[in-house]
Write a structure and sequence with these properties.
The complex is a heterodimer of chains A (523) and B (380). Chain A is of the alpha+beta class and 523 residues long. Chain A is 43% helix and 11% strand. Chain A folds into 3 domains: 3-135, no CATH class; 165-279, no CATH class; 295-458, no CATH class. Chain A starts with 22 loop residues before the first helix and ends with a helix. The chains are: A alpha+beta (523), B mainly alpha (380).
């Protein structure tokens, strides 16, 4: 509790104004800065022996029950019959004896007082003292823990992160009850003063990566952080890439799993999306459900996902390339059928595909933004008017509608939304290449992608690990997912060595526990 | 504020790591297989072509172990250019190094041009050659800009795919009953001399002697005693692989194999598998593309690394200069036939052996002599 109470002022800020001995003078200074709006509450109290005190807080930022408790403990001071009362000043009594509250901090300047109030603390001032007390009474009304709306699973925990940083950290602490779990707080954003927690496992995460995360976070110099996306763009290794270089998750179990494999989590107050770094390309194809259901099914789903990723990237461009340049590649029957459909279509395949793809992107965007109530209208317009009628009117061919629909469905299979978005962007570039250079254009585009992917790094970790550089031990969790008892080593990469996950195999099946040991210790 | 953001984004503490052995091996295999498995090597030997390839491979092995690797072992911290300067001194070394840069560029040019012509022949008959070659050159420039480690990582990532496609192709060819091993008999019909003539020096020059380029790369590989044995293993794997492809092509196509431009493409055209997998030549196009791309980019890298040793220019400029030379150089042949003719009639017989055999052997002799002398000085 003590930690979040830490009220610190930037070192380069202006000279701090000290508090005055006069209570009224202090209150006047506060109202000058914050105004006399109705939500600035200043409660004046009379203490024992005629000394005066005041309680300052901002309504809505504090928990009313806690504040009531605080008031009660102040007015009931001093406890009857207590000894040593004479030597203490009123301030000391409050600070060290009578405040019925968990966390308190001593404040010495008016700037600290203002900051404490803005962060939801209640400030207690006593007449005749140049110090004030900040009592931790933060309590904003926030959404409770609900099922995550993205990254849903059939089997697995149904709880998701919320907007409250403390709820989120407690969700993680509940998963990992270890003394090695470290949480470091910092405040970023001159105006928003957003609290950010860097979470990692001290014994697993590689110290170099943690240092690098700290360094990059400290280098951020901005006035607002409203969502973890702000942080992501500031700290990622490279800006000009469609691929996500940090993972985000709404699921505490996914974040806990990441921490246990040596990733560093960055939690931003005010958003349920927690960042994980470093990350590799294949991570985006893993769903936390893979580990909760049978390994053979998980393996099958992995392959489906990789296939869908390539389908959503390549299918329209392959259709364009083949119907425009390489018709001879199609089996004769199929060729005739496609040619018959395309007979009345007035556009070349590239334009036809572009029209349909952009239409779909518009539909999808409308589906996300529109009010929920008019949802059915969109599906009627989308499915009937733009799909069926467009074919009947001879504007697009039926085969093209199939290709576009399949592409669309395939792009939703990827568990991570931001990787799906990357595939969407690349799809358009590949379509243009296919429309101008056919299969050669697609190959050139893919080779460009390979160069780009090989050059990418996330916090120093090559993006294509464990494929290139090859880490044989890690391949147990890429295209296939081996049973849990066979994953005795943590995937090499962002974690320290030796990184043994579990001891001797707990299954009775025989297997090569020794050969594992060689593979994983590369990084 | 901008600088702070830059600092936040810049990668910290990431130094260029050494090329791992696995990456080096992948690159050697990709480089040697390159596009050579698509063609019928040593077609002069007709049905004994595969024997010629095998013989060529063995000769190449002697060259590799006896000269290139021996040279590298004598001077493990130096690349080819540094060796030349060290052993031959400034004036002569300068001339030879310049000619090596030109040699690497020329090899790269041949790959670019060959690829462009074959693409036009097979896939895109109406696209201008200049556009195709520009695209592949730009891709190479993009790769070279990212540095050697990225290039070798690409090789590591793509090798399993390439090998996988070859295995699928071979299975399909064998499965559709296209292999007629009787095409290959009788063995040694024309005697061993025909085989030898087809193998030497053509097959040394292309593709087996081309490993001279790796004298530019070995220096950057991880310092590990296994490097030599790994190189030899990868070499043998690629050599056997090319031999097997050769057998497949000749057994599948017979005498036709010597007359078509891309025999493997011709052969896959014939695959018919349960009326579904019929025309899978785009896979061959993919193989051709990756093979050629890796080969031309490797030579491009060689030229850039070599040039940067004796020209003091920012590496960006050198990359662009060499890239421009390769692109415009590819227009020097009037057509595909001239390119093939020049290559097989002159380059392979007279020019390439100079760079692949003569100079390395001379360097090796000088290195050995110098070492003896040093040892003598030490013992005295």
């Amino acid at each position: 509790m003590k930690k979040e109470l830490k009220i610190s002022i930037d070192a380069d800020a202006k000279e701090l104004t000290p508090l005055s001995k006069e209570l009224q003078q202090n209150i006047k200074m506060v109202t000058e800065e914050l105004g006399t709006e109705p939500d600035i509450i200043i409660r004046q109290l009379h203490l024992y022996k005629n000394s005066k005190a005041a309680l300052l807080y901002i309504a809505g930022m504090t928990d009313a029950n806690v504040v009531n408790l605080l008031v009660m403990s102040i007015v009931s001071e001093p406890p009857l019959g207590s000894e040593g009362q004479e030597e203490e000043s009123a301030f000391q009594t409050l600070m060290y004896r009578s405040l019925a509250i968990g966390g308190v901090q001593k404040l010495e300047s008016i700037d600290e007082v203002l900051l404490a109030m803005l962060e939801g603390n209640t400030v207690v001032m006593v007449d005749g003292s140049v110090e004030a007390i900040a009592a931790y009474t933060c309590g904003v009304d926030r959404r409770g823990v609900e099922e995550p709306s993205t990254q849903t699973v059939v089997r697995g925990p149904k709880e998701g992160f919320t907007e409250s940083l403390h709820t989120n950290t407690s969700l993680i602490r509940n998963k990992i009850k270890s003394t090695n779990l470290r949480m470091e707080y910092r405040i970023i954003g001159h105006q928003t003063r957003t609290t950010i927690a860097v979470v990692f496992m001290k014994n697993i995460a590689e110290e170099k990566v943690v240092q690098e995360v700290r360094r990059r976070l400290d280098a951020i110099d901005t006035d607002s952080i409203l969502e973890s996306g702000y942080i992501e763009e500031f700290i990622q290794d490279k800006t000009f890439t469609p691929f996500p270089l940090l993972q985000n998750s709404e699921r505490p179990d996914a974040v806990a799993a990441g921490l246990l494999e040596g990733q560093v989590a960055i939690i931003v107050d005010g958003t349920p999306f927690v960042l994980l770094a470093p990350v590799t390309f294949v991570k985006f194809f893993q769903s936390s459900e893979d580990y909760y259901q049978r390994y053979d099914i998980a393996t099958f789903l992995r392959i489906i996902r990789f296939g869908s990723f390539f389908a959503s990237m390549l299918l329209p461009s392959l259709y364009i390339a083949i119907t425009t340049f390489h018709q001879e590649m199609l089996p004769t029957q199929l060729l005739i059928s496609i040619a018959a459909q395309r007979e009345g279509v007035p556009f070349p395949a590239l334009i036809e595909a572009m029209i349909m793809e952009i239409t779909f992107e518009i539909l999808r965007e409308a589906g996300v933004r529109m009010p929920r109530i008019i949802g059915p209208a969109i599906s009627i317009v989308g499915a009937l008017v733009l799909g069926q009628s467009a074919v009947q009117a001879g504007l697009v061919s039926a085969a093209m509608v199939i290709v576009v629909s399949f592409t669309a469905i395939a792009s939703f299979v990827i568990p991570s939304v931001n990787m799906g978005t990357a595939a969407r962007l690349i799809r358009f570039a590949l379509m243009i290449l296919a429309g101008t250079f056919g299969v050669f254009g697609i190959l050139a585009g893919l080779m460009l992608l390979l160069t780009h992917l090989s050059a990418l790094r996330s916090f120093g970790l090559p993006y294509l690990t464990p494929i290139a550089p090859l880490v044989p031990g890690n391949l147990k969790d890429v295209f296939i997912r081996v049973p849990w008892w066979a994953m005795n080593k943590r995937p090499a990469g962002p974690n320290q060595n030796p990184s043994v996950r579990q001891g001797e195999p707990s299954s009775l099946t025989d297997k090569d526990a020794d050969s594992d040991k060689k593979g994983s210790d590369v990084e | 504020m901008f600088t702070a953001h830059e600092a936040a984004r810049s990668k910290g503490g990431v130094e260029l790591e050494r090329i791992s052995l696995n990456q080096l091996g992948s690159m050697i295999v990709l480089f040697l297989i390159g596009s050579s498995s698509l063609f019928l090597l040593a077609s002069d030997a007709a049905k004994d072509a595969w024997i010629a390839v095998f013989v060529g491979m063995l000769c190449g092995l002697i060259l590799l172990c006896g000269v290139n690797l021996a040279l590298f072992r004598l001077m493990p911290d130096k690349d080819l250019i540094e060796m030349i300067f060290e052993l031959l001194g400034k004036p002569i070394g300068f001339v030879i190094c310049i000619s090596y840069v030109l040699f690497f560029c020329y090899e790269s040019i041949r790959n670019v041009r060959e690829f462009g012509d074959l693409m036009i022949m097979y896939l895109l008959p109406q696209t201008p050659l200049a556009a195709l070659m520009l695209i592949i050159c730009l891709l190479a420039v993009y790769t070279v800009f990212h540095g050697l480690d990225v290039f070798f990582r690409m090789a590591e990532a793509i090798l399993p795919i390439v090998i996988g496609i070859y295995i699928i192709l071979f299975t399909l060819i064998a499965g559709s009953g296209l292999l007629h091993l009787e095409n290959l008999t009788p063995i040694f019909d024309d005697g061993f001399s025909t085989v030898w003539r087809a193998a030497f020096p053509e097959l040394i020059s292309f593709p087996f002697g081309e490993l001279i380029l790796f004298l530019m790369f070995w220096k950057h590989a991880a310092k590990d005693g296994k490097m030599t044995s790994l190189t030899v293993k990868c070499y043998l794997f690629s050599g056997c692989f090319i031999t097997i492809t050769n057998i497949f092509i000749y057994a599948g196509l017979g005498n036709l194999a010597g007359t078509v431009a891309i025999p493997l493409m011709q052969l896959t055209n014939l695959i018919e598998f349960s009326q579904f997998l019929e025309r899978i030549d785009p896979f061959v196009a993919l193989l051709l593309f990756t093979g050629v791309f890796f080969k031309l980019t490797a030579y491009y890298f060689g030229a850039v690394l070599a040039l940067s040793k004796f020209i003091k220019l920012p590496s960006k400029h050198i990359i662009i200069i060499v890239g421009a030379v390769i692109y415009f150089g590819s227009f020097m042949f009037r057509n595909y036939m001239e390119q093939v003719w020049l290559g097989f009639q002159y380059n392979v017989k007279y020019h390439f052996p100079l760079f692949q055999i003569v100079v390395p052997v001379v360097l090796l002799m000088l290195a050995v002599i110098r070492r003896r002398r040093n040892e003598k000085v030490l013992t005295e």
